[in-house]
Amino acid sequence: MPNRNTSALAVENVHLSYGSGPAAAAVLRGITAAFSPGELTLLMGPSGSGKTSLLSVLGCILRPDSGEVHVLGEAAARLGEDARTLIRRRRIGFVFQAFRVFESLTARENVALALELAGFRRRERLARADAVLTELGLQSRLHRKPKELSGGEKQRVALARAIVHNPPIVLADEPTASLDTESGLKVAALLRHIAETQKRIVVVVSHDERLRVFAHRCLHILDGRILEEKQ
Fold first, then answer.
1. Could you report the per-residue pLDDT of 129-156, keeping only the tens digit for each?
2. Strand order in 74-75's β-sheet?
3. 68: number of CA atoms within 13 Å, CB side?
4. In this structure, which topology does domain 37-61+80-230 adopt according to CATH?
5. How many angstroms separate the CA atoms of 85 and 71, rounded?
6. pLDDT tens figures, 161-173
7. pTM, whole model, 2 decimals?
């Protein structure tokens, strides 16, 4: 069982099914796991194993059928949708495979947009966007639109957008799947760097075995259960 005193993000005996009645399909079967600041945890397993569903439960996108989800001291599985939305907005940064950047906006505008809903004034939004993009090596790409960026650069813009509001938790779903080898390894190295230097919880779903070298630990998931954990 996760130690609630030391783990900032944890699930306890989580079950999740899609559908209802005889057609219900179980995707998570009693998952228990804990995640701590300063660590990059890799979730691996074949397609349909439940790893993306687990990431969605950790990110308060999906509510489990049963079990507990602890997010920075909050029993998130018991909260209403409005409260869960606030957790997602303030405490969690999401990185996706498909970048999800706006083609009509520059790199800095894409990142600054993440701060608009939080009420930051335009000058501060842009200043923060510039700072985090520079930290990720994109200082020469601030005013470029996505069509002028490589796949690796677009994923770094997406990563900058995920962390610009300083969330303690970063969740990434196949963040290197659309990238070439060199770009993918650079993004993986950045995710580890963010975990270690900024003491964030970073959880990454991936099929890519090459990412193991960047992980502090790896959870292998099969048929909705954690099969093994490797350091």
1. 999 999 999 999 999 999 999 999 999 9
2. 25-35, 9-18, 66-71, 74-75
3. 16
4. Rossmann fold (3.40.50)
5. 13
6. 999 999 999 999 9
7. 0.91
